[in-house]
Amino acid sequence: MRPLQLLIIPLALALQSVRADPLQYEFLVLPSVEAGGVFNRSAAQTEVRDEVIRADLLLSLQKGPFRLFGEYLRSDHEGDLERFQLGWQLSSDTVIWIGRFHQPTSVWNHEHHHGQYLQTSITRPSIDEWEDLGGVLPQHFTGMLVESSKAVSDTWRLRTALGAGIAPQINGEGMEPFNLLHPDSERHRFGYHARASLHPGDVTETGFGILAAHDDMPGVELELGHVSTPLMIGLDHVELNLYGLFGTYAATSWKLLSAIYYADARLFYTDHRINDSFSVGYVQLERRLVRDLTGYARWEDSISAGHSYLELFERYARSRHVAGLRWDLARRQAISVESADTHKLHGSYSTIRLQWSAALF
């Protein structure tokens, strides 16, 4: 029986017991169109596509204590079921999910997910990039996720998220998470994640927190022509331990968000092991201007980035400086322009991007 069937059958049986409860639903489409260009290039590869057209479709259903959430991303170069989660509302402040989800220790993606309209900047920090775009941290897991938000005083709330599931594989083209629609029989290993943050209110963005994760990712060798680095040859698996601090301060006219990660990686080969560690951080400042304009700037940097683990990912940016301007020209529509200087492990390049994004109900 396929994993998708195993997720749907328990939900169908459980819904029989809550027929009297009304069905609540929400459907949201987040389209975007982007064009970009590269100049001053000395790097062999970049993550920039000349044109990108995408639509992020989100569906949420709730009947009694049962929930279903799905996210499907379709673009001019891919289509993928990004999230498919079946949930149980254990209490007023705790939900248990099973299925495919975004891992909670990726600070940026846990808040913004795939919809371009939901984030002020066009790009996301390189450390939080998606697996198929050169990401160096696992972003999608299939397993169980427990999310909670509890009051710890009259105003402050503690938000927690605990997750465990099938970790992505590492191959010559980067990371590949477990695919619910096309599950494979290759060997798989697991990852575990924990995140906790304090917030001065129930719905505010302002808050700060800590995170920790352990991911065990198998190495999958492809044909020699697909091996992007000699480090892939003979790689059995990678154990990655991740620790981090993060915080956001959102005021009326400006917002500051930042995160810092420390990673300890162990690369296991057939006859030896390589130990590696590195640190990555970013800070993004956003400022509301006149006439529905928002200016923003982001600084990203790495320490000890030129070692073994990050060499597995050709498109990773060890440092990047970003500046941009977003114009919310109409209700739930925006046009953004962004420039960036990116320095990779080998080479550098500069980019300019233009994007239209929207949220359609």
Indicate the topology.
Blueprint: H1 3-15, E1 23-39, E2 51-63, E3 66-75, E4 79-91, E5 94-102, H2 107-112, E6 140-151, E7 157-166, E8 169-171, E9 174-176, E10 190-199, E11 207-218, E12 235-250, E13 254-269, E14 273-288, E15 293-303, E16 317-330, E17 333-344, E18 348-358
Antiparallel strand pairs: 1-2, 1-18, 2-3, 3-4, 4-5, 5-6, 6-7, 7-10, 8-9, 10-11, 11-12, 12-13, 13-14, 14-15, 15-16, 16-17, 17-18
Describe this structure in words.
- By secondary structure, the protein is mainly β.
- It has 2 helices and 18 strands.
- It has one domain: Porin.
- The strands form 2 sheets. A 16-stranded antiparallel barrel has the order 1-2-3-4-5-6-7-10-11-12-13-14-15-16-17-18. A two-stranded antiparallel sheet has the order 8-9.
- The relative contact order is 0.15.
- The mean pLDDT is 88.
Provide a brief overview of the structure.
With 361 residues, the protein is mainly β. It has 2 helices and 18 strands. It has one domain (32-52, 90-358): Porin, CATH 2.40.160.
| Count of domains | 1
- In DSSP terms (H or I, runs of 4 or more residues), the helix count works out at 2
- From the spread of the alpha carbons, the general shape counts as globular
End-to-end Cα distance? 35 Å
Q: How confident overall, as mean pLDDT? A: 88
CATH level-3 fold name: Porin
- Kindly state the percentage of residues in helix: under 10%
CATH 2nd-level architecture: Beta Barrel
* Strand neighbour order, sheet with most strands: 1-2-3-4-5-6-7-10-11-12-13-14-15-16-17-18
Strand fraction equals over 45%
Q: What class would the helix/strand composition place it in?
A: mainly beta
- Roughly how many Å is the radius of gyration? 21 Å
At the first level of CATH, the class is Mainly Beta
Largest sheet descriptor = 16 strands, antiparallel, barrel
- SSE arrangement, N to C: HEEEEEHEEEEEEEEEEEEE
Q: How many DSSP E strands?
A: 18
Uncertain segments: none
